[in-house]
Design goal:
This protein has two domains: about 240 residues, Aspartate Aminotransferase, domain 2 (3-Layer(aba) Sandwich), CATH 3.40.640.10; about 100 residues, Aspartate Aminotransferase, domain 1. α1 packs across α6, α2 packs across α6 and α3 packs parallel to α4. Helix content is about 35%, strand content about 15%. β3, α4 and β4 form a beta-alpha-beta unit. The chain is built from nine helices and 14 strands. The model has no long low-confidence stretch (mean pLDDT about 95). The protein has about 350 residues and is an alpha/beta fold. The chain is globular and about 65 Å long. Bound molecules: pyridoxal-5'-phosphate (PLP). The site of pyridoxal-5'-phosphate (PLP) has 12 residues, from α3.
């Protein structure tokens, strides 16, 4: 069987060129006679891999010198704890709850201090982004937390909240490198890489230097201190070496494609194919308020659970994988990350049209 169109929300599709390069280098990386998996992380060859990866990421995102780039482990979920442990100096933080991942982060933060929910879209099953222009941010809040793209519900902050001068912390797992970002607007930008960049297990954390201090909550484990990782260039212990190598290849792939501006254009074009169809279809419809639609995750329904199940099954047989919606919301979801070619979306829409005619 050949490659399918993989619409998984994560781990997700990676660029074929990257996978082929990694395959070609599997047994002998660059004349070293060994795989990157078998190599000391202190070796010259590996040092060059991680240094180049960081440099390419800095170029792509235009990351200022006063921000550190950390390659960490534990997935995005580990950051739910690391953020309060390291940043809650006043033991207070504001959380905007726009979906399950934001909620999990909020609940985790409550273990460490006073996490305050300052806005939520739970009233309409997280189908929109609340107005964040004048939120009741506590005076002594250490930071304001958002999940910028809500992977499960398919919403995206197109405008960042007014944090009233507080540090903004953002989980960008599912929109990482999908568009240009102004890093200076954030204190911390972090994401698990398995949605848009690489293999699960690596989490990239871009953090402003003044937020990296020894002053962390008592009992914070060594491995969960940003300062330890920053002081050791992400090499305090063995980093997720192979994963970082694949991330580095994706960064180079993105640079070759013209960087994040070009990527955004492509992603907009790609998402439009699907959204335009959803807007005119008599069978399928999107579940999110138009103004808040994500370019990466597109949830939709037919209105009948039976038809939804039939669609997912027939789509799979036709080579469109992982279209079933998240177990908590049902329906369908097409995740169309950077590496999903526009042909994949066009063919999916053609299949949806044909399904609609057959089931009218
Ligand atoms: C997938 C996801 C997570 C969880 O990532 P893990 O690496 O499994 O911990 C957190 N936040 C968002 C926005 C996600 O999409």
């Amino acid at each position: 069987m050949g490659r399918v169109y993989n619409f998984s929300a994560g781990p997700a599709v990676l660029p074929e060129e990257v996978l082929m390069e990694a395959a070609a280098e599997m047994l002998d990386y660059n004349g070293t006679g060994m795989s990157v998996m078998e190599m000391s992380h202190r070796s010259k060859a590996y040092e060059q891999i991680i240094t180049t990866a960081e440099k390419d990421l800095r170029d792509l995102m235009d990351i200022p010198d006063n921000y550190k780039v950390l390659f960490l482990q534990g997935g995005a979920s580990q950051q739910f704890a690391m953020i309060p442990m390291n940043l809650m100096k006043n033991k207070k933080a504001a959380y905007i709850v726009t979906g399950q991942w934001a909620k999990k982060a909020y609940q985790e933060a409550k273990l460490y201090g006073d996490a305050v929910e300052v806005a939520s879209s739970a009233d309409k099953t997280f189908s929109y982004i609340p107005d964040c222009s004048d939120l009741p941010i506590p005076e002594d809040a250490d930071y304001v937390y958002i999940c910028e793209n809500n992977t499960i519900y398919g919403t995206k902050f197109w405008q960042l909240p007014d944090t009233k001068g507080k540090t903004l912390v953002a989980d960008v797992s599912s929109c990482f490198l999908s568009e240009p970002v102004d890093v200076t607007k954030y204190g911390v930008i972090y994401g698990g890489v398995q949605k848009n960049i690489g293999p699960a297990g690596v989490v990239i954390c871009i953090i402003r230097e003044d937020l990296i201090t020894e002053d962390v909550l008592p009992g914070t484990p060594t491995m969960l201190r940003y300062k330890i990782h920053a002081d050791n260039g992400s090499m305090y212990n063995t980093p997720p070496a192979y994963g970082i190598y694949i991330c580095g290849k994706v960064f180079q792939w993105l640079k070759k494609r013209g960087g994040l501006g070009a990527m955004k254009e492509y992603n907009e074009k790609k998402a439009k194919v699907l959204y335009d169809f959803l807007d005119e279809s008599k069978l399928f419809c999107g579940t999110v308020e138009k103004k808040d639609r994500s370019l990466m995750n597109v949830p939709f329904v037919t209105g009948s659970e039976e038809l939804d199940a039939k669609f997912v099954k027939e789509a799979k047989a036709a080579g469109f994988e992982n279209l079933k919606g998240h177990r908590t919301v049902g329906g369908m979801r097409a995740s169309i990350y950077n590496a999903m070619p526009i042909e994949g979306v066009e063919k999916l829409v053609a299949f949806m049209k044909e399904f609609e005619t057959r089931n009218a």
